[in-house]
Write a structure and sequence with these properties.
By secondary structure, the protein is α/β, with parallel strands linked by helices. It contains 25 helices and 22 strands. The strands form five sheets. The chain has a seven-stranded antiparallel β-sheet with strand order 1-10-9-8-13-12-11. Helix 10 runs antiparallel to helix 13, helix 12 (260-268) crosses helix 14 and helix 22 packs antiparallel against helix 23. The longest helix is centred in the middle third of the chain and has 16 residues, at 270-285. The structure holds zinc ion. Zinc ion (ZN) binds at residues 546, 548-549, 578, 580-581, 583-584, 588. Residues 546, 548-549, 578, 580-581, 583-584, 588 line the site of zinc ion.
């Protein structure tokens, strides 16, 4: 598993401000958001939050990682189901297998099944807990049921060839142990007999026709991985060195024109495949939200975005740019001959039994194709309202809001503020069989079982407005409109609300009260706003302090001033920052959480909306009515040790003096 040679943070953070890319070569998403390199630095002028009483704040500026031989990654906490034994296809039921093997009789089985049903536990686990079978027999029964040979990994000695074929990153991400590679057949051990999708992925990633699976316990898999890969981890640097020394790949350095066959050939070269596999798997393992491949005049960059911040990885040789983008195109079923037009595609992987959806966007630039891959890993986003960081009292109010039979509920904030996650989590909670939920989104990010989701397509004029109009003819109860951008969409949303539907949507405004003025500015009549809007939530995402290196400190008067606080106001309050440790790649941060403000529209506010009150007046009234503003929510998150002063200042600086 992870050791000091682990390549994982071959990432070094972008220096503040970053080197400006060559003109015209800027990829779309890198430009969309200010590069939060040295992310903790707030843009406030004169701000100097870097040094906390002389101690440097741990920021993603990990000097030690610049060489690419950074700190080990934390082991992924995800676990794959061990004793799950769902009846699939023509397979025998697990209970029947237990009886057939003579591990228990019918009566005992009935008791086990009863308990499994009542406690919602897998049958195998219950049988073990009741002492009917031991772990070994459980494995034997699972193997029997799924037609898989059970392997004893203690005796396994994988050959150097098979370890070379299946690198450590791949084995640990997929939780498989490579056993042998003979006659073009790869034999692996898996811990979850239902995780056959992993086998398909390996076949595709490694370009191997036959992969045979054997069964072992998840514990044995993890122990064996640690043993067999000790000291053998391959880093991105190793692969890049290998590529640079490869005469076949090296000699194309002087390429002027490339023909299709050459490109196809290069895309399929083993080292290129290996590099892309490694980059993807590391991205998934590190919970990156986006992976960027960026061609500039003299270099080719690879960057990850984790928790909203871009990190640079060791750059591959510039001359491989075409091979890399071609390989990604092949994987996402795009046209590799088309190099002048943008293309969109997707790659689906199955990691640890969970689907990971990768949305590929290819943009031709001055120096080649810029490729950006959005990683949508459902296991990272739990879509659970309890987990998005809404404070308990506010959550109770929000739940009352979303349970209303009709009206419009808005979530506001800039791009990347987590609005979609909040709304998906709300829908997830409202998703019951007796209600029909339809969404129209751009793009559909996660498919939720039981919800009808419609993707916007501007090319054929399928806009939010036109989709929404059709949705109303589909007999919905609850509707999600990805965003209200124009009067037409706003009007249809209002119409939907007035005809007895609840409508969820988002607006790009900095705070909740501004949403009212935005709708008014779009041209929506105030009486329609008061008749339909029930509540508005504004939100931001802040990086959480790493729990393993959280440290208390005394902020300077200067830092407090940035939050608009006087030292006497914070007497007795505690402040924390992350010192930086292995678990957080020395960034001091791990994961993100939301900070929120919620406005419930009451009669007082309705009167003000009707009489055309300004945003400032509306805001003052909201605060009078007990609204906890974004900045205040941020302060609470700071005092609770969840986040840092810098994060809150950066994310709420626009609301200052609002
Ligand atoms: Zn840490």
């Amino acid at each position: 598993m992870a050791t000091p040679n682990d390549p994982v943070p071959p990432k070094k953070p972008i220096p503040p401000g970053g080197k400006p890319p060559a003109p015209g070569a800027k990829p779309p998403s890198a430009g969309a958001k200010p590069q939060a390199g040295a992310g903790a630095k707030p843009p406030a002028p004169g701000a100097k939050p870097q040094a906390i009483q002389g101690k440097p704040v741990a920021k993603p500026t990990v000097a030690a990682n610049k060489a690419g031989n950074g700190k080990p990654l934390a082991k992924p906490a995800k676990k794959i189901g061990g004793g799950k034994a769902a009846p699939v296809g023509g397979k025998r039921r697990f209970g029947q297998v237990l009886v057939d093997l003579g591990f228990c009789d019918e009566d005992q089985l009935w008791e086990v099944l009863e308990e499994a049903k009542n406690t919602a536990q897998p049958v195998g686990q219950v049988a073990v807990a009741r002492g009917l079978i031991n772990e070994e027999q459980l494995l034997q029964a699972l193997g029997e049921q799924h037609g898989l040979k059970v392997v004893n990994l203690q005796e396994a000695k994988p050959s150097p060839e098979v370890l070379q074929l299946v690198p450590e990153t791949m084995a640990s991400v997929y939780k498989v142990v490579p056993i042998s590679f003979k006659d073009k057949v790869l034999t692996i051990a898996i811990g979850d007999p239902n995780n056959l999708a992993a086998i398909d992925d390996l076949r595709n990633l490694l370009n191997i026709n036959e992969v045979q699976a054997q069964l072992a316990t998840p514990q044995a898999i993890s122990d064996t991985l640690t043993r067999i890969y000790a000291g053998k981890e391959e880093s991105i640097i190793d692969i890049i060195t290998e590529i640079e020394n490869n005469p076949e790949l090296g000699k194309r350095r002087a390429e002027t024109s490339i023909d299709l066959e050459d490109m196809m050939e290069m895309a399929n070269e083993a080292p290129v495949r290996k590099l892309i596999n490694m980059v993807f798997l590391l991205g998934i393992k590190d919970h990156a939200s986006d992976i960027h491949f960026e061609p500039f005049e003299d270099e080719y960059k690879m960057r990850y975005r984790c928790d909203g911040v871009l990190y640079e990885m060791v750059p591959p040789p510039r001359h491989l740019a075409n091979a890399i983008s071609s390989r990604i195109k092949v994987m996402s079923n795009l046209d590799i001959a088309e190099r002048r037009l943008p293309q969109d595609g997707r790659i689906e992987l199955n990691v640890g039994g969970n689907p990971v959806d990768m949305r590929v966007s290819i943009l031709p630039t001055m120096f080649g194709e810029s490729v950006v891959i959005r990683v949508l890993d459902r296991t990272v986003v739990s879509l659970d309202l309890n987990k998005v960081g809404i404070p308990v009292e506010m959550l109770a109010e929000f739940r009352q809001l979303i349970a209303k039979p009709n009206g419009i509920i808005l979530v506001t904030g800039p791009t990347g503020a987590g609005k979609t996650t909040t709304l998906y989590s709300a829908l997830n909670e409202l998703n019951v069989i007796s209600d029909k939920i339809i969404t129209t989104e751009d793009p559909v990010e996660y498919d939720i079982d039981g919800i009808v989701q419609c993707q916007i397509n501007h090319e054929i004029d399928l806009t939010f407005a036109s989709a929404l109009r059709s949705i109303l003819r589909q007999d919905p109860d609850k509707i999600l409109v990805g965003e209200i951008r124009d009067l037409e969409t706003a009007q249809i949303a209002v119409q939907a609300s007035l005809t007895g539907h609840i409508v969820f949507s988002t607006l790009h405004t900095n705070d909740a009260p501004s949403a009212i003025t935005r709708l008014r500015d779009m041209g929506l009549e105030p009486y329609l706003i008061t008749a339909t809007i029930e509540g508005i939530m504004a939100q931001r995402l802040v990086r959480k302090i790493c729990e393993d290196c959280r440290t208390e400190f005394e902020p300077s008067a200067e830092m407090l001033m940035e939050l608009g606080l006087r030292p006497e106001e914070v007497r007795g309050k505690k402040f924390y920052y992350g010192r930086g440790c292995d678990r957080c790649n020395n960034t001091g941060h791990r994961g993100r959480t939301g900070i929120y403000e919620l406005v419930i529209i009451n009669d007082d506010l309705r009167d003000m909306i009707s009489s055309g009150s300004s945003t400032d007046d509306l805001r003052a009234a909201c605060l009078r009515n007990g609204m906890v503003g974004l900045r205040e929510s941020g302060l609470r998150a700071i005092y609770n040790g969840v986040t840092t002063i810098e994060e809150v200042v950066r994310e709420t600086v626009l609301d200052d003096e609002a």
